[in-house]
Amino acid sequence: MKQTVTSRAFLLVLILGMLVIGVGIYFKKIRPGGNLYYPAWQMTIKGEERKSVGKLDNYGCFSRFMVPRDKTLDSSKPVMTELKLDLFESFYLGTFFGKIKNYEPSMRKDFSGLIDELMQEEKIKTYTHLNAIICLNQIDLLNPPNGASLTYYVSHSYCTSECQSESYFIDVNLKSDGNFIGYKR
After folding, report:
1. pLDDT per residue as tens, the chain (185 positions)
2. Least enclosed by CB within 10 Å: which of 13, 43, 58, 61?
3. In the chain, what are the domain boundaries?
4. SS (H, E, C) the chain
């Protein structure tokens, strides 16, 4: 009798533990490697009001666009930002740094437009073979002070023996002196 009660109690604790873990995973959405991702209902923006323009996978987007292979740049397309670069270097997929010319803290609201433009012009590499769909998922204009932090969710397509897609994040941090750095995680 005592063994049956102990077995039932153990089974109940095990089931409750699995339920708690399942609920935690549902709300946190822990990705392989331990990174958290932010689904559409968890989009964040600090320091500015902006509406969502849709979703990519389960991520809400403040801006969303595709960068196709072999595209020709449209010179009649309106410029998204008036920010000018003093310095810009791009390395491997999603790694870059630069400096905004004559930076003032009020310019940080246009920072995401500058990064969007650099990605669309392929100055920031977002794909390895076919194309990328890019979603600006998080904007923080309060941290760091007089700077900004952006998080992009990128889904890029490529082909080896068969075609597939892979997703990753690009974090971009703008400091109060106008220097910025972006990196893939």
Report:
1. 556 767 787 777 777 767 666 655 554 444 333 334 444 444 555 655 666 788 888 888 998 999 887 765 554 455 556 789 999 999 877 799 999 999 999 999 899 999 999 998 889 988 877 889 999 999 998 888 999 999 999 998 888 888 888 899 999 999 999 999 999 98
2. 13
3. 1-30, 38-184
4. CHHHHHHHHHHHHHHHHHHHHHHHHHHHCECCCCCECCCHHHCEEECCCCCCCEEECCEEECEEEEEECCCCCCCCCCCCCCCCEEEEEECCCCCEEEEECCCCHHHHHHHHHHHHHHHHCCCCCCCCCCEEEEEEEEEECCCCCCCEEEEEEEEEEEECCCEEEEEEEEEEEECCCCEEEEEEC
